[in-house]
Amino acid sequence: MKKTLYQFAKNLVDSAKDLAPIVLVIAFFQIVVLQQSIPNMDNIIIGTGFVLIGLTLFMHGLKLGLFPIGEVLAFSFVKKGSIVWLLVFSFALGFGATIAEPDLIVMANEAAKVAQFGGIITSDAELNQYAQTLRYTVAIAVGLSVVIGVIKILKGWAIQYLIIGGYLLVMVSTLLAPDFIIGIAYDAGGVTTGPITVPLLTALGVGLSSSIRARNPLIDGFGMIAIASLLPIVAIMIFGIVR
Amino acid sequence: MTSFAHHFVETFWAVVPIIAILFIFQVGILKQKIPHLKRIVVGFVLVWLGLTFLIIGLEKALFPLGKIMATQLTSSNLVSNPLDWYGYYWVYIFAGCIGFATTIAEPSLLAVAIKANQVSGGFIKVKALRITVAIGVAIGIALGSFRIVTGSPLHYFIIGGYILVLIQTYFSPKNIVALAYDAGGVTTSIVTVPIIAALGLGLSSAIDGRNPLTDGFGLIAFASLFPIMSVLAYVQIIHLSNHDKPNQ
User: Fold this and answer.
1) Of B44, B54, B104, the CB nearest to A54
2) Under a CB-based contact definition with an 8 Å cutoff, are residues B133 and B109 in contact?
3) Chain B nearest CA to A48, separation (Å)
């Protein structure tokens, strides 16, 4: 119990550290440069409190439940030796982790509001659906990225060729996609790699590359996140073209 | 209150897939029991509760705050000449500061930096790498705000950036390339993304002639692309300076 409380307190401090730079920079600009008042200050203070509590509970919960079982599973599937199951698991892990990413939820909701404001969607019912479709599109893309990342480690492919291929795909899809989707698509690449996805994918990548003798976990274990930042861009562009 | 309930439902369905996947694979396919079941269930409940508070907080505080900053930084008493891009210098300074401060404090970046130090056999210094990445993010977000102010097309910058990254990759030591690419992905954390995104959307609605739909997004893309360039540049520089020493 004492250990749990200590861990919880540590997570609270970590969350405060995450928020501190933003609060400090904004406070500095407010006091020194802008010297204006912030409207709805009480709402913002309460909301920041929510972020602090939410982030602490979230990180604490991840460490208690999701990370241990996720890491054990990643190692089990690596040891099992069945490539098909390893790939199925990799896709599912990337997909499931991305759906739960807080950044993606917030960004998709915001993108839907902007789309409604811009007249791309018209009704409130469509608003939720638009945000949902964005998230599922990104999640499928991250799932595929993890599969590609795993095959890369198995085959020993060099990351730079995959990145060049990814960049080319992004360039071609940019040419074809409608203007309103390009910004969201590029941003989706940075949003996907959040607090759930990164540790789980790193565990999978490092676990896999340390179990294969010809691979160096420090070199081959990385690159998965880079692939997972590129394919979602292409996927959102395709979503924009098809829509 | 209805929004509270709405968020609880939304986050419930956000965590269900990953829970279902882990349980199905553990019990159904590996045919193993779940170890420490009680602790794991508590963990998932905390993730659900935490995610709900987090999302409400982000939408109620950090998003509005980013938009307020954008509005105030573009107000007429700070911007002397709204038609010139350099009139908005406080916007660029703020964007750079937010980028640098949030990145230097980012814990997942520290983890990547420590690994980069090991891979390179100590050539890459942990602190120097963190500063390098933070500078990359700062320049990226500042340039991204410049793009919004001027309304120039996003894909010119991003594709130009890609080409630069590819050229840098060609000249970089191969064992560090994957880490440099990953450094771009880990810089944008939970609290950074909403504030940066809101800054972009706020700027595009505050500045005349800009449209949130086409100009508002893209700052996060800048924040993930530019650290790749700065890390590759840093690696290149220390690589070259080591070659210059003949007795190494």
Assistant:
1) B54
2) yes
3) 6
pLDDT in tens, A41-76: 888 899 999 999 999 999 888 888 888 888 788 888
Closest residue by Cα to residue B120 from B79, B52, B179: B179
* Chain B contact set for A58 (CB, 8 A): 46-47, 50-51, 54
pTM summary value: 0.89
Question: A57 and B105 in contact by Cβ < 8 A?
Answer: no
- Of B51, B75, B170, B211, which to mutate for an interface test with A (greatest number of A Cβ within 10 Å)? B51
CA neighbours closer than 13 Å in the CB half-sphere of residue A146: 32
**CB burial readout B108-120, b (16+ within 10 A) else e:** bbbebbebbbebb
Decide if A190 and B185 are in contact by the 8 Å CB cutoff. yes
For residue B140, give the nearest of B17, B224, B231 by alpha carbon.
Answer: B224
Closest residue in B to A194 (Cα–Cα): B189
Determine the 3-state secondary structure of A18 from DSSP.
Answer: helix
**Which two tokens mark A204?**
């999978």
DSSP letter for each residue of B28-43? IIS--PPTTHHHHHHH
- Contact (Cβ atoms closer than 8 angstroms) between residue B139 and residue B194: no
